[in-house]
Structures are given as structure tokens and as C-alpha cells.
């Protein structure tokens, strides 16, 4: 009994410390917003990676004195820095686009609650809106129609995955829409085998999932014997099906987080082919946005060069000559014009910058068609690097 009492007291102390830590995290976040307000007037970049590195080295050294592992300190503070940068960016964007900041937004996404698109939507708007009105759709086309018609403010579309590659259906749809890309977010994809009831892997006879998760988990599935594959329109539909059946022979591929919304539990975790599996989503709206000068930006465009030797290379040389980094190049066939390609290009530059405007003008003069799909803040925050000597000292 005395051991139980001692354990309870220890847990009470941990609970109090956790509360104090949360309060300190909140105070720190509030101060970083004050930093953002200062940068808004001085037009200074959101990130100062030299200062971030100096901060991490100082904290690592202070942590060592307290008996804290350098990798632990680095991991914690890289997360804090990422949160700080994203919050500062969100604040600066509210200043750059005062007319579109509202407490409630409506978002269309693939599937229903629990889908990866659902999770990406909530994660994206957690910093930007107090409430989300959700509109689950059964296809990418329906998502875009909902936004184009004005029924919803935004559409969340998966564009590429680190395991299965580009999502061609979305790229093709971007050829024929007037919507603008206004944001992006990278969502970790943590595939699990989920079930509605307690069971064993050897008893599973049917697995429900969207086509993308099946592709991304092919190595795991190839090892399973006598299992029937059932394709669903979305991960959320697959999870809903498993919940309704309550069958020990039925499983679904989805995220553990999404599964909790359907009272599913993970029978097998981390079943994707790649341990690091992420999907990049783009957010589309009826009107483009302005990106604050302090924020790193991407501009997406599509162009057609015709069947001229070296035409695409000429366009890329222009970008190189201007010092503009191209971070994505994708080709897709032009419908109705055999053997001709449309090229999708993402560059790391603000559309308002003089250098990108010059590059676009030069590219326009040597192409048959060019269209700006949107300019938006870069959402992926690369972790600040720390010299190995600081960690291993």
C-alpha cells in the first residue's frame, strides 16, 4: 500500500509539472507573436537560422549541465521553433490578407471525418480559424466543384506522396480550373491495420482501403495470404465500413488518429513501405492571396512549350539565370493533343518579386501557354541543423 501511495504522489508531481510546462509553452508562444508584430513593421524575414542554431547550441549545453540528453533537447526545441515559425507566418498572413480572415471557414476534402484529407484540413486551419465547417466529398472533381460554386471557402487536395509519387488526377484537374492554390501542408502518413473488434492478424480475410494506402503498403500486404482487397472511395469510408461490420475477419488501412474517431484500434502499426511517409496537400480557393514579404513563398505555374526541341530547357535556363530555385517539375499529357505535354512547375519565390516577374515575362515569350496557379507560403519548416560537435561533445 505504501508503494502505491508513493507512486501516486510522484504522479501528482508530474501532473503539476506538466501543467506548469504548458503554461510556460503558452507564454513563450505569446512572446513569439510579439516578435512577429515587430517583424511586420521592420520587414524582416520570419526565420533567422543562425540565431536558431545559436539558441539550440546554448540550450544543449545548458541541458547537459542538468543531465539532459542533447538529442532530447534538440528534438523538443526543433518542435518549438517550428511552431513559432508557423504561428508567425499565420499572423503575418492575416495582415497581408485582412479581407479573408474570418473566425469560421468551410473546407471540402476527400472522404469524411478520419480521412487523411480531413486530418490535414484540421491541422492546417488549427492556426487560422476558430471553427471549421466540414464538407466530405467522394472525388477530387467534387471538391473543386464545391469551391468553384462558392458552396465552400476552400478545398484540400492531396498532390503527392513520398511513397507512391504524384497524384495525377489532381494535376490533370488543375489544367481546367480557375481556382488558385493558396496554401500547402505536409501531413505525416502513418498507416496502420485497424479493426473494430479484438482479433488476430491470422484471422483477417478482408481489408478495406483507398487505392493510395494499398499502394503505399504493398510490401506488408504481399506477405498476407488469402486476404481479399476491397477498394473504397476514401480512407474514411473504409473505416466506417469496418465499424459497421464489427467483424473479426475485417480490417482497414488508415491512421491510428483517424481510427479513434470510429472506435477502431490498431492491430498492426507502421505497415507502410517507407518508414518516413508523407503526403503534401494543396489548399485551393476562388481568389489568390498575397504572401507577406517576410515569409518564404512558393509560386506554382503550368506551361506548354509545344513540340520544339529544347523548349523546356530554355525555360529552366531562365529560372537558373535568375537564381530561382525550382522545387517541383511534373509533366502531364494535354487532353486532345497526342504526344504534347503540360509542365507543372513549383518555384521558391514570391510572385510579387521583381525577379520572378522578369522570369515569367521571358518564359511567356517562348511558350505557347502559361498560367499562374497560385502563390502561397511555404509550410514545410526544415529543422535547424546543429553541428555534431555540439551534440556529441
Automatic annotation (TrEMBL):
<feature type="binding site">
    <location>
        <position position="84"/>
    </location>
    <ligand>
        <name>substrate</name>
    </ligand>
</feature>
<dbReference type="InterPro" id="IPR010952">
    <property type="entry name" value="CM_P_1"/>
</dbReference>
<dbReference type="GO" id="GO:0009094">
    <property type="term" value="P:L-phenylalanine biosynthetic process"/>
</dbReference>
<dbReference type="GO" id="GO:0004664">
    <property type="term" value="F:prephenate dehydratase activity"/>
</dbReference>
<protein>
    <recommendedName>
        <fullName>Bifunctional chorismate mutase/prephenate dehydratase</fullName>
        <ecNumber>4.2.1.51</ecNumber>
        <ecNumber>5.4.99.5</ecNumber>
    </recommendedName>
</protein>
<dbReference type="GO" id="GO:0005737">
    <property type="term" value="C:cytoplasm"/>
</dbReference>
<feature type="binding site">
    <location>
        <position position="48"/>
    </location>
    <ligand>
        <name>substrate</name>
    </ligand>
</feature>
<keyword id="KW-0057">Aromatic amino acid biosynthesis</keyword>
<keyword id="KW-0511">Multifunctional enzyme</keyword>
<keyword id="KW-0963">Cytoplasm</keyword>
<keyword id="KW-0028">Amino-acid biosynthesis</keyword>
<comment type="function">
    <text>Catalyzes the Claisen rearrangement of chorismate to prephenate and the decarboxylation/dehydration of prephenate to phenylpyruvate.</text>
</comment>
<keyword id="KW-0456">Lyase</keyword>
<dbReference type="Pfam" id="PF00800">
    <property type="entry name" value="PDT"/>
</dbReference>
<comment type="pathway">
    <text>Metabolic intermediate biosynthesis; prephenate biosynthesis; prephenate from chorismate: step 1/1.</text>
</comment>
<feature type="domain" description="ACT">
    <location>
        <begin position="300"/>
        <end position="377"/>
    </location>
</feature>
<dbReference type="InterPro" id="IPR002912">
    <property type="entry name" value="ACT_dom"/>
</dbReference>
<dbReference type="InterPro" id="IPR036979">
    <property type="entry name" value="CM_dom_sf"/>
</dbReference>
<feature type="binding site">
    <location>
        <position position="39"/>
    </location>
    <ligand>
        <name>substrate</name>
    </ligand>
</feature>
<dbReference type="InterPro" id="IPR002701">
    <property type="entry name" value="CM_II_prokaryot"/>
</dbReference>
<feature type="binding site">
    <location>
        <position position="11"/>
    </location>
    <ligand>
        <name>substrate</name>
    </ligand>
</feature>
<feature type="binding site">
    <location>
        <position position="52"/>
    </location>
    <ligand>
        <name>substrate</name>
    </ligand>
</feature>
<feature type="domain" description="Chorismate mutase">
    <location>
        <begin position="1"/>
        <end position="92"/>
    </location>
</feature>
<keyword id="KW-0584">Phenylalanine biosynthesis</keyword>
<feature type="binding site">
    <location>
        <position position="28"/>
    </location>
    <ligand>
        <name>substrate</name>
    </ligand>
</feature>
<dbReference type="GO" id="GO:0046417">
    <property type="term" value="P:chorismate metabolic process"/>
</dbReference>
<dbReference type="InterPro" id="IPR045865">
    <property type="entry name" value="ACT-like_dom_sf"/>
</dbReference>
<dbReference type="InterPro" id="IPR008242">
    <property type="entry name" value="Chor_mutase/pphenate_deHydtase"/>
</dbReference>
<keyword id="KW-0413">Isomerase</keyword>
<dbReference type="GO" id="GO:0004106">
    <property type="term" value="F:chorismate mutase activity"/>
</dbReference>
<dbReference type="InterPro" id="IPR036263">
    <property type="entry name" value="Chorismate_II_sf"/>
</dbReference>
<feature type="binding site">
    <location>
        <position position="88"/>
    </location>
    <ligand>
        <name>substrate</name>
    </ligand>
</feature>
<comment type="pathway">
    <text>Amino-acid biosynthesis; L-phenylalanine biosynthesis; phenylpyruvate from prephenate: step 1/1.</text>
</comment>
<dbReference type="Pfam" id="PF01817">
    <property type="entry name" value="CM_2"/>
</dbReference>
<feature type="domain" description="Prephenate dehydratase">
    <location>
        <begin position="106"/>
        <end position="286"/>
    </location>
</feature>
<dbReference type="InterPro" id="IPR001086">
    <property type="entry name" value="Preph_deHydtase"/>
</dbReference>
